[in-house]
Amino acid sequence: MAAILARPAPLPGRNTPPPGHLNINTSQRGTPSAIPNKHIPHCSPGPRPTPRQLDTPPASPPSATQLVETTSLLHPPTSFHKLKSDPPLYDISAASLAQALDHIATQPLPSTKQVFPWLHGLHADNQLQLAFFIARKRSLRRTPKCIRGITIVKAGGDLSHSKLKGAVAPDEILQPRIDEMDANESGDFVEIDPREGFSVRNFQIQACKMATVSDIVVYGDDKTPRTEVEALAKKISRAQALWQKKNGSQQDNEERSFNTFVVSGKWQTFKRSSRASNHA
């Protein structure tokens, strides 16, 4: 059965009084009471800024499109003694090398848009790699001019001892010798960009890629003859000149973009410089 609900009839003779005026005043004396937390307490913002502070806003960080060029204490090499002229070699002390490495470590890194995809490795014959990274923009294959590094190479190539941090062996950046009897052969950098295959990393090519855009410092341990150190430095200097001509970054009678340095003294000079810096 369906139930029917009906409103009860009002009682006769009783009228419902209209609601009175609502008043939130709960004070007994008729004055409104304060509402808690209605006003924020006054806090001093600190001393008034001087006009000089207002005129010099803080420097903004570089934008992604801003061109950042790495500077180096090794370029130009005018403050270093020139050991040889053909090919050019410069002398550098262990202390000067440490200062140059500290300086370049504090330089801001260029934007990734400025150095990639060049650092990925873009060989002219690798159509798959080129199609993925640059498509129709052939200009992206050019070597970026904003980047500059310092590459340390140990003569002899034995990195199991007497190794400076970040040092590489000669065969990591140079083409192997064709004739062992030819002491004056022209050096050339390894053609490190992969001819085939596809990779977005290619970490194994980074040492050689950076060497092509670096000033290169050659050193040897106490067992390596000085003549061997200078012979390797000459080969690297020739490789730098050849690479820069291939890439159009140097013309005849024009200042070289990158140079080769030979560390003066023996391996013990690095140890003395390290002890001096640790006790400074």
Can you walk through the features of this model?
This protein is an alpha/beta fold. The protein has one domain. The chain contains 7 helices and 5 strands; from the N terminus they run αββαααβαβαβα. It has helices at 51-55, 94-105, 112-115, 127-133, 206-211, 226-246, 268-278; strands spanning 82-85, 88-92, 149-154, 214-219, 260-263. The chain has a 5-stranded mixed sheet. The longest helix is centred in the C-terminal third of the chain and has 21 residues, at 226-246. It is elongated. Residues 276-280 have low confidence and may be disordered.
Keywords:
280 residues, disordered C terminus, elongated, five-stranded mixed β-sheet, alpha/beta
Secondary-structure map with pairings?
Elements: H1 51-55, E1 82-85, E2 88-92, H2 94-105, H3 112-115, H4 127-133, E3 149-154, H5 206-211, E4 214-219, H6 226-246, E5 260-263, H7 268-278
Parallel strand pairs: 2-5, 3-4, 4-5
Antiparallel strand pairs: 1-2
Distance between the termini: 102 Å
Mean pLDDT, to the nearest integer, reads 77
How would you write the strand order of the largest sheet?
Answer: 1-2-5-4-3
Q: Give a short account of the largest sheet.
A: 5 strands, mixed
Q: Quick summary of this structure?
A:
The chain is of the alpha/beta class. It has helices spanning 51-55, 94-105, 112-115, 127-133, 206-211, 226-246, 268-278; strands at 82-85, 88-92, 149-154, 214-219, 260-263.
